[in-house]
Design goal:
mainly alpha; 3 helices; flat
């Protein structure tokens, strides 16, 4: 994957977390958390990274559902 494509993917992911529906962000986080064990031939580092990303998305979604706003995204 080229650097511009990866940068665009990262930009879309950040935009989803900031501007997406909190319920959808929560569902993606739960999905990542549950699917970490299903990744075949992944190292423990990859599994733990997927779990951590899922937990972070769940926390962000719960904070947004409680009515708090996130700081503006980095430019």
């Amino acid at each position: 994957m080229s650097a511009p494509a990866l940068q665009g993917l990262l930009h879309d992911a950040v935009a989803f977390v900031y501007y997406g529906d909190p319920i959808e962000v929560l569902l993606v986080g739960v999905g990542l958390l549950l699917s970490a064990n299903l990744i075949e031939s992944a190292t423990r580092l990859v599994e733990n990274g997927v779990r951590l990303l899922g937990i972070l998305l769940i926390i962000v979604a719960l904070v947004r559902l409680m009515g708090f706003t996130l700081p503006p995204p980095p430019v």
